[in-house]
Amino acid sequence: MKRWMGFPAIFLAMNLVFSGCALFLVGAGVAGGVAISEDGVEGKLNKDRSKVWNAAQEVLSKNGEITSRDEVQWKLEAKVQDSNVYVTVLESTSKVTTLSVKARTSPGVFPNVKLAQSLYTDIVNRVRTL
Fold first, then answer.
1. Whose CB among 8, 40, 113, 127 lies 3.0–4.6 Å from 55's, allowing a Cys bridge?
2. Domain locations in the chain?
3. Rounded mean pLDDT of 98-121?
4. Does domain 27-129 fall into CATH 3.30.530.20?
C-alpha cells in the first residue's frame, strides 16, 4: 500500500521533467518558484528590479532583436527565433521582482513555451552574475 501512495508523486515528477518543465520542479533559484502558463513563464526573484531589467535586455539582445522598450511600464518586446517575445519586470516588493517571459510564434497563434523557459532561465542566470 505504501508503494502505491508514492507512485502518483513519482509519476508527476517524471512527467514534468520529461515534458521540459524541470524549471517548475527546481524553482530555478527564485524566491517563490516558477509558474508555467500556456505561453510563458513567471517567477519571483530576490533581486532589484533594475538588475532584472538590465539582464533581460542583455539576454534578449544576445538572442534576437529588441523591437520595443517601455521603461515606464518595464516591458520589453523582442523577435527571437521567429517568435515574438514579451518580457515584463514588475516590482512585487522593494526586495522582490516578478519576471514574466512569454513567447508566441510570429503569426501570434501558437505558444512557444520552450523558448520562454529558455529565455527565463538565461535571464535568471544573468541576474546572478550582476
1. 127
2. 27-129
3. 92
4. yes
CA 114, CA 101: separation in Å to the nearest integer? 11
Count CB atoms within 10 A of the CB of residue 57.
18
Q: Using CB atoms within 10 Å of the CB of residue 111, give its burial: 0 to 12 exposed, 13 to 18 middle, 19+ buried.
A: middle
Helices vs. strands in the chain: H and E counts, helices first: 4, 6
Q: What is the pLDDT of residue 106?
A: 77
How many angstroms separate the CA atoms of 110 and 104, rounded? 6
- Give the 3-state DSSP-derived string for 6-64, with helices as H, strands as E and coil as C: HHHHHHHHHHHHHCCCHHHHHHHHCCCCEEECCCEEEEEECCCHHHHHHHHHHHHHHHC
